[in-house]
């Protein structure tokens, strides 16, 4: 190999090493940004999806949305349930709090107050608004006492 070719090769190697270092720095910056997104209460996967859709452009995104709608309609016509309705519960059934209190203390819990504490209500309303903004939902309680907060829910207050 001539000295000139060896010098060219060396410059290419050094340039690629510098680019690889920059890529690692960018990867670390992206990971840090994802942590900030999560800390601010947003769903990192949804942000990633939005970024992909923005990169793809409006035409490609609209086409993908149309195909998804066609597939979902086909599944609905077949009577297919959403995946979450077909899964077996992964969490064990919880015992009622009253039963646990009776086992631990030998007595029943005092009755629940009829009026909700204003601080508790304010915290629940703030949680509801945060979930709505992030497009997430959360169910608290079970049976008749369950309340679902967040996106797409009628204001439970």
Topology, element by element:
Blueprint: H1 3-39, H2 44-56, H3 58-77, H4 83-86, H5 97-105, H6 118-134, E1 137-140, E2 147-150
Antiparallel strand pairs: 1-2
Task: Tell me what you see in this structure.
By secondary structure, this protein is mainly α. It is 64% helix and 5% strand. The chain contains six helices and two strands. A two-stranded antiparallel ribbon has the order 1-2. The radius of gyration is 27 Å and the shape is elongated. The mean pLDDT is 80.
Brief descriptors of the model:
single chain; 157 residues; mainly alpha; 2 strands
Question: How large is the share of residues in beta strands?
Answer: 5-15%
- What do the pLDDT scores average to? 80
- The number of helical segments is 6
Reported for the largest beta sheet, the result is:
2 strands, antiparallel
Quick description:
The chain is mainly α.
């Amino acid at each position: 190999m001539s000295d000139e070719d060896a010098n060219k090769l060396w410059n290419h190697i050094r340039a690629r090493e510098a680019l690889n270092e920059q890529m690692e720095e960018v990867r670390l910056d992206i990971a840090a940004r994802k942590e900030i997104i999560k800390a601010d209460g947003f769903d990192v996967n949804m942000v990633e999806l939005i970024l992909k859709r923005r990169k793809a452009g409006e035409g490609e995104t609209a086409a993908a949305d149309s195909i998804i709608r066609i597939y979902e309609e086909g599944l609905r016509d077949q009577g297919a349930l959403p995946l979450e309705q077909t899964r077996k519960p992964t969490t064990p059934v919880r015992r009622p709090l009253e039963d646990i209190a009776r086992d631990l203390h030998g007595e029943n819990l005092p009755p629940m107050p009829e009026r909700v504490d204003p601080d508790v209500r304010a915290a629940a309303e703030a949680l509801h608004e945060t979930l709505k903004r992030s497009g997430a939902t959360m169910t608290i309680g079970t049976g008749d006492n369950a309340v679902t907060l967040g996106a797409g829910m009628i204001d439970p207050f």
